[in-house]
Design goal:
Blueprint (H helix, E strand, L loop, with lengths): L22 H8 L6 E5 L6 H10 L4 E6 L7 H15 L4 H5 L8 H16 L5 E6 L7 H12 L5 E7 L7 H6 L3 E4 L1 H4 L3 H7 L7 H11 L3 H13 L17 H9 L5 H9 L8 H8 L4 H11 L3 E3 L7 E3 L1 H14 L2 H18 L2 H10 L3 H10 L1 H7 L2 H13 L6 H13 L3 H18 L8 H18 L3 H14 L34 H12 L7 H16 L3 H17 L3 H17 L3 H14 L3 H18 L2 H10 L5 H13 L3 H18 L2 H17 L3 H18 L3 H4 L4 H14 L10 H20 L3 H11 L4 H8 L3 H15 L4 H12 L1
Parallel strand pairs: 1-4, 1-5, 2-3, 3-4
Antiparallel strand pairs: 6-7
Length: 840
C-alpha cells in the first residue's frame, strides 16, 4: 500500500466569487510578522477557512496547507503530509532527506523527526506558512507534543496557522506570555453591520432588514450566507430568520429545511449519497450515484452557493463545507432505513478502497461495524502499513475491533503487539503476549501450518520483550533454542528491511540495544552464539548484535575484542546499505584511534566517511565526532567550527558542545547544557547518557569548586556505571581520574549515607585501569625518548637536554617532534600539561 497523497487535503481552497474581502481581518493576519503561530478558533460556520483561503490566494507566499480529518490521528501520517507538502511547495528534497525517520513511532525518533524538519526549514531563505485546518479533529497526544516542539523551536522564516472549533490542547497560555501567539476569535470573525451591508450591496435591502439579519444571526457568517441562499431559493424572497439563531441547536434544521428541501429531488439525492466523501471527484460521485454528469452537478452546486468549495486544482475536485456535510449525513440517516444508509457508506468505502484511499475505506467500514471486511483489508495491507510507518492508525483499528469483541486473526494480533512495544506501551504489550501464550496452550495456534510464519515472528517477539526488560535471559535462550531446533520458517515479512537504528550515534542507545543496560558477558556470549552459529546468522538482529557487542566490549575496556566485532559490523552494515549500523561503527573506530592519540588516522577515517554519505543527519554525527577528536587534541577552534556545521539538539552534539564550553572556560553554560541532557536522559531511561552526563556534571561542579556537588554527581554516574560495568566512559573523560581518586579518598575517610551502593572495589578498578592506560602511553616511547621526555617535564631547555645527553640541539628537536606525535600533542607546553594531568 503506497502512500496515497490526496491533493484535496493539500490544496488551498478557492474562495467563492461572492466571498467578502474582510480588510479588518487581513490587518489582524498581517500582525503575525513577529509571531510564531496564528490560531483561528470559533465554532463551525465562522469563516475560518474562507478567511485564510482569501488571504493566501491574494499572496505569493509559500503555503503548506493541510485539511485534516480523523484519519490523520497518526503521527507518521500527519507529519508525512506536512513534510511532503512543504517539500513540494518549496521544491526541495526535504521529504526524501527525512524519509528514513518515518519508519518508527518511538518517541525519540519522532522528536528527532521534528528537529530535522526544523533544521531543513531553517535552511530555506523564503518565508513558509504552514496551515493546519480543522485541528480539533486531532486527538492524538503524540501529535500535540510534536506540534508543541515545532512551535517551541520554529525558525524565524516559518509561521504556523491553526483553525479549530474547540480549545486546543497546546500550551497556549505560555505562548501568549511569550508573545508568540496571534489569536483571531469568534467575536472577531463575526460580521459587522458594515460588512453585512457590503455583503447585501446588490440586493438593495432596507437598513431595518439588515439590522434584523445582524441581530438574528449575531454576525454569524454561515447564518448570513444561509440567509442569502434562502432569498435565492424562496420564490417569495421572504426570510424566516427566527430559525437561524446560532446559539440554538437549529443550524442543521435550517440547512435542511431552508436549503436542502428547496432543491430538486435529484440534487438532494446526489448531496445525500455523496456526503461521506471527503473530496468530491466526479468519477467517484458518478459511481456512487449511478450518474454520468457529476461534474456538471458539482458546478451547479458551486454556482448556487450551496456550501460546495472548489479546490484550486488542475483536476476538477470539490468538497462540501464540513458543517453542510455533517447536516447531510444526519439527514441521510433520518430519511432512509439503517440498512440503506449502511449500504451507501459501505459502497463509499469500497470505492475509496479501489481508488487506493485504504485508510478512509477501513475507517468507514469500522464505522459501520463491517468488521470482517475491515479485517480483510487490514490483513491484505498489513505489510504495507508497517512499511509506511502508520502504526498508530493500525493500533486504533485493532483497538476498535477488540472493543467490539471481534476475534482478530493471529497475524494482526502479533503485529499489534510489536506496534505496542515500538510505541513503548510495554505493559499493554505484555498483556497481549500473555494472551497469545494462553491461546497457544488452549488452541495450539502456533503449531498450525497456516500460522507457522507469524508464530516464528511471535517467538522472536517473546525474546525481544525479555531482552528489552533486561530480565529472563535464560528463558530467552531457551525460546531461541527451540526456534533453532524447529528451523527457519519463511513468511511474507521476510523481505521487509528492518532498521533497528534510525538516528543514534551509538547502537546501544536504541531500544533494542537496551539503552545502555549492558548484559553480562556470561549471559551475552551463549545468547549471541545461538544467533551467530545457526541459520539465524544472516538475520538483521544478528547483524545488529555485532555492532552492539563492539560498543559493549569497548565500554568494558576489551579494546582488541571490540575491534574484531566492529570490523564484522562494518562489513554487514555496508552490505545492507544501513548507515544506522555502519556510522556508529565509524564513530567507535575513530574513538579508538583517538584513544591511541592517532588523530591523523581518526580524521582521515571520518573525512572519508563524510565524503561517502549524503544523508545530512549522518553527516552531522560524523562532524560532531570530528569536533570531539579536535577537542581531545586541544584544538578548540577547529572543534567549534565542526560543531557549528552540525548544530542540533541531539544528546551527542550537546555533550560535545558542553565539553567545548568547558575547554573555553564557560563552565556555567556547560553545566546548564549537561543538566538539560541528563534530565531528558533520565526521562527516557537512557543509561549510557545518564552516566556520561552525570560525569560531565561532576567535572563542571569541580571546576566551580563545588566539591560536594561534584562528588554527588560522580556518585550518581558510578551508581549506574557499576550496575552495568562501565569503564571507558570514565577513562576517556579528561579530569575524571582526579575526581575518582577524590571520591575514593572520601569513601575511605567518611561513611557517606547511601554511597555504599557503589562498590569501592569498582572505583579502585577504574583508577587502576586508568593508571595502566596512562602507562601504555609512555610505553610508546623508546628508552631514549623517555629520557628526553623526563628532562623536558623537569623543565630543562633544549640546550640543557642536549648537553646532558651529549646530543646536538637539532637531534633533540627531532626527538621532541616524534615524542609530540606519539603523545598526540603539538607543543612543549601541551606535553608538560599532559604529564601533569596523567602522571602526577
Amino acid at each position: 500500500m503506497q502512500m496515497v497523497w490526496l491533493s484535496s487535503k493539500t490544496t488551498v481552497p478557492k474562495a467563492t466569487a461572492e466571498a467578502l474581502d474582510r480588510e479588518r481581518l487581513y490587518e489582524l493576519l498581517q500582525k503575525n510578522h513577529s509571531k510564531r503561530i496564528t490560531i483561528l478558533q470559533a465554532p463551525a460556520g465562522y469563516g475560518k477557512t474562507t478567511l485564510l483561503s482569501q488571504w493566501f490566494n491574494q499572496a505569493n507566499d509559500t503555503i503548506t496547507w493541510i485539511s485534516l480529518n480523523t484519519s490523520d490521528n497518526d503521527p507518521i501520517r500527519f507529519w508525512k503530509y506536512v513534510i511532503h507538502t512543504t517539500s513540494n511547495v518549496t521544491e526541495s528534497n526535504m521529504y526524501n532527506t527525512l524519509a528514513s525517520l518515518f519508519q518508527s513511532q518511538d518517541p525519540s525518533t519522532l522528536e528527532f523527526l521534528i528537529d530535522s524538519f526544523l533544521n531543513e526549514m531553517s535552511l530555506m531563505e523564503r518565508p513558509i506558512s504552514i496551515v493546519l485546518e480543522d485541528y480539533h479533529l486531532i486527538d492524538n497526544k503524540v501529535i500535540h507534543q510534536m506540534l508543541t516542539q515545532l512551535i517551541e523551536y520554529l525558525p524565524d522564516n516559518v509561521h504556523v496557522y491553526v483553525t479549530s472549533r474547540e480549545n486546543l490542547p497546546l500550551p497556549i497560555a505560555k505562548w501568549r506570555v511569550k508573545s508568540w501567539l496571534n489569536e483571531i476569535s469568534m467575536e472577531q470573525l463575526c460580521f459587522t453591520f458594515e460588512e453585512i451591508e457590503q455583503f447585501y450591496e446588490k440586493k438593495n435591502l432596507e437598513e431595518k432588514l439588515l439590522h434584523h439579519v445582524l441581530n438574528t444571526t449575531e454576525g454569524w457568517p454561515a447564518g448570513i450566507q444561509l440567509t442569502s441562499i434562502s432569498m435565492r431559493t424562496n420564490s417569495n424572497n421572504a426570510l424566516t430568520l427566527d430559525k437561524m439563531n446560532p446559539l440554538q441547536p437549529l443550524i442543521t434544521d435550517f440547512l435542511l429545511q431552508e436549503i436542502l428541501d428547496t432543491l430538486p429531488s435529484t440534487i438532494q439525492d446526489f448531496l445525500l449519497k455523496t456526503s461521506f466523501l471527503q473530496s468530491l471527484e466526479p468519477e467517484i460521485c458518478n459511481s456512487l450515484t449511478n450518474r454520468s454528469d457529476s461534474y456538471a452537478m458539482l458546478i451547479e452546486l458551486e454556482n448556487k452557493g450551496i456550501f460546495t468549495v472548489r479546490l484550486n486544482n488542475a483536476q476538477p475536485m470539490f468538497r462540501y463545507h464540513h458543517l453542510f456535510a455533517e447536516a447531510l449525513q444526519i439527514e441521510l440517516k433520518n430519511r432512509y432505513p439503517k440498512e440503506f444508509v449502511s449500504s451507501i457508506i459501505l459502497e463509499t468505502a469500497k470505492l475509496l478502497y479501489l481508488k487506493g484511499d485504504i485508510n478512509s475505506a477501513i475507517d468507514l467500514a469500522l464505522q459501520e461495524s463491517a468488521f470482517t471486511l475491515a479485517e480483510s483489508w487490514i490483513t491484505e495491507h498489513l505489510v504495507e502499513i508497517f512499511k509506511n510507518g502508520e502504526t498508530s492508525t493500525f493500533l486504533g483499528w485493532v483497538q476498535t475491533l477488540r472493543r467490539n469483541d471481534y476475534p482478530v486473526n493471529y497475524e494482526i494480533l502479533v503485529m499489534y503487539t510489536i506496534t505496542l512495544i515500538s510505541a513503548l506501551q510495554i505493559e499493554e504489550a505484555g498483556l497481549i503476549i500473555y494472551e497469545l501464550e494462553l491461546k497457544q496452550q488452549l488452541e495450539q495456534w502456533m503449531d498450525k501450518e497456516e500460522n507457522k510464519g507469524i508464530a516464528d515472528i511471535f517467538t522472536t517477539l517473546q525474546v525481544y520483550a525479555l531482552i528489552s526488560m533486561g530480565t529472563g535471559i535464560e528463558k530467552a535462550i531457551e525460546i531461541i533454542q527451540r526456534q533453532v531446533d524447529q528451523g527457519y520458517v519463511s513468511s511474507r515479512w521476510d523481505g521487509i528491511p528492518i532498521r533497528f537504528n534510525l538516528f543514534e550515534h551509538k547502537l546501544t542507545r536504541t531500544s533494542i540495544g537496551s539503552k545502555g543496560r549492558f548484559m553480562s558477558l556470561e549471559k551475552a556470549i551463549p545468547f549471541a552464539k545461538l544467533f551467530r552459529e545457526t541459520e539465524f546468522k544472516e538475520k538483521n538482529m544478528t547483524l545488529f548484535s555485532y555492532g552492539a557487542s563492539a560498543e559493549t566490549l569497548y565500554e568494558r575496556n576489551y579494546i582488541d575484542a571490540a575491534i574484531g566485532e566492529l570490523e564484522i559490523a562494518l562489513k554487514y552494515g555496508h552490505s545492507l546499505k544501513d548507515p544506522g549500523l555502519f556510522i556508529p561503527m565509524y564513530v567507535l573506530k575513530s574513538q579508538i584511534y583517538a584513544l591511541n592519540k592517532n588523530f591523523v588516522a581518526a580524521h582521515a577515517l571520518l573525512d572519508n566517511v563524510l565524503d561517502s554519505i549524503n544523508d545530512k543527519h549522518w553527516q552531522n554525527i560524523i562532524l560532531t565526532m570530528k569536533a570531539r577528536c579536535f577537542l581531545l587534541e586541544g584544538n578548540t577552534l577547529r572543534a567549534e567550527a565542526e560543531l557549528r556545521k552540525a548544530e542540533s539538539r541531539q544528546p551527542f552534539w550537546l555533550l560535545v558542545h558542553a565539553r567545548l564550553l568547558l575547554a573555553t572556560a564557560k563552565v556555567e553554560e556547560a553545566l546548564k547544557t549537561v543538566i538539560q541532557v541528563k534530565t531528558k536522559a533520565i526521562e527516557e531511561d537512557q543509561v549510557s547518557t545518564i552516566v556520561e552526563a552525570s560525569l560531565l556534571e561532576a567535572i563542571c561542579e569541580m571546576e566551580m569548586d563545588h566539591k560536594d556537588s561534584a562528588l554527588n554527581a560522580l556518585h550518581e554516574a558510578l551508581s549506574y556505571g557499576s550496575t552495568y560495568d562501565y569503564v571507558r566512559t570514565f577513562l576517556d573523560e579528561e579530569g575524571s581520574i582526579k575526581l575518582l581518586k577524590a571520591y575514593a579518598k572520601e569513601r575511605q575517610k567518611h561513611k557517606k549515607t547511601g554511597w555504599n551502593s557503589v562498590p569501592l572495589s569498582y572505583v579502585e578498578r577504574l583508577i587502576e585501569s586508568s593508571s595502566q592506560a596512562e602507562s601504555s602511553i609512555l610505553d610508546q616511547l623508546t628508552p631514549r625518548e623517555l629520557e628526553v621526555f623526563q628532562l623536558l617535564v623537569d623543565g630543562a631547555t633544549n640546550k640543557e637536554i642536549a648537553q646532558k645527553l651529549f646530543l646536538s640541539e637539532g637531534t633533540i628537536r627531532v626527538y621532541l617532534t616524534t615524542i609530540y606525535s606519539k603523545l598526540g600533542v603539538k607543543s612543549r607546553a601541551k606535553a608538560i600539561l599532559l604529564y601533569n594531568q596523567k602522571f602526577l
